[in-house]
């Protein structure tokens, strides 16, 4: 759910994105982002909650308002809301700090790039290269499920079993990128074959 109030529309020129930025891109951890959102007092439609994914309205608040129209990297999200193949940070979900936001959440080495007025543009992570940890992550997906997921992912496990190097990757939303560089309000206007309710009648 995007924020629609004028206060969240950033004074940001897309052309500035392709030159040398006046200021470096902002960086903030997921936990710190939740803290900023909760302390902002903004009337979000979805209250920011530790351990839950960021909504579009949260991402827009961070990049448009908190960081004053600056592209922003949010990193180290909780493990349980991210795909099984992302590499953990080894924090074990615990911390010696007294702040409850610093305890109880195991995080993964991932990052999302948020841009003013459009929110998430790209996302990436380090990939888990340890066979045993990856196998356990897949087993955790099956908890409480009647399906056996591992056989369908054996080919992926084999890439680690027979040799793998530490590596990472990222994905760029091409339609979102086109929307961003053309400053188009609705993503449907840049998708070649947009699909939405009542658009294709059968």
Structural notes for this entry:
The chain is an alpha+beta fold. It is built from five helices and five strands. The protein has two domains: 14-128 and 166-186, Bira Bifunctional Protein, Domain 2 (BirA Bifunctional Protein, domain 2, 2-Layer Sandwich), CATH 3.30.930; 130-164, no CATH class. Helix content is 24%, strand content 13%. A hairpin with a 3-residue loop joins strand 3 and strand 4 (119-126). The longest helix has 11 residues, at 30-40.
What are its keywords?
202 residues, alpha+beta, BirA Bifunctional Protein, domain 2, 5 helices, globular, disordered N terminus
CATH architecture label name of the largest domain: 2-Layer Sandwich
The SS-based structural class is alpha+beta
Strand content: 5-15%
Major pleated sheet: 5 strands, mixed
What is the percent of helical residues? Answer: 10-25%
Query: What oligomeric assembly is this protein in?
Result: single chain
Distance between the termini: 29 Å
Uncertain runs with pLDDT below 50, 5 residues or more?
1-7
CATH topology of the largest domain, anyone? BirA Bifunctional Protein, domain 2
Strand order of the largest sheet: 1-2-3-4-5
Number of domains: 2
Total helical segments: 5
Average pLDDT taken over every residue = 84
Shape by Cα distribution: globular
GO cellular component, one term: mitochondrion
Protein name: Putative asparagine-tRNA ligase, mitochondrial
GO molecular function: asparagine-tRNA ligase activity; ATP binding
Keywords: Aminoacyl-tRNA synthetase, ATP-binding, Ligase, Nucleotide-binding, Protein biosynthesis
């Amino acid at each position: 759910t995007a924020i629609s109030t004028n206060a969240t529309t950033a004074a940001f020129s897309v052309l500035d994105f392709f030159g040398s930025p006046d200021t470096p891109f902002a960086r903030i951890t997921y936990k710190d982002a939740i803290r900023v959102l909760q302390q902002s007092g903004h009337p979000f439609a979805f209250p920011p909650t530790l351990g839950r994914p960021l909504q579009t309205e949260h991402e827009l608040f961070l990049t448009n308002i908190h960081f004053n129209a600056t592209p922003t990297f949010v990193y180290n999200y909780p493990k349980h809301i991210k795909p099984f193949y992302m590499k953990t940070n080894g924090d074990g979900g615990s911390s010696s700090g007294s702040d409850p936001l610093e305890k109880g959440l195991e995080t993964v080495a991932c990052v999302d790039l948020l841009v003013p007025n459009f929110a998430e543009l790209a996302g990436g992570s380090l990939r888990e290269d340890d066979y045993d940890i990856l196998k356990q992550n897949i087993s955790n997906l099956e908890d409480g499920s009647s399906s056996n997921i591992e056989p369908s992912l054996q080919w992926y496990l084999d890439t680690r079993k027979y040799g793998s190097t530490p590596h990472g990757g990222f994905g760029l939303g091409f339609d979102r990128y086109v929307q961003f560089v053309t400053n188009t309000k609705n993503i449907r206007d840049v998708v070649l074959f947009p699909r939405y309710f009542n658009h294709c009648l059968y």
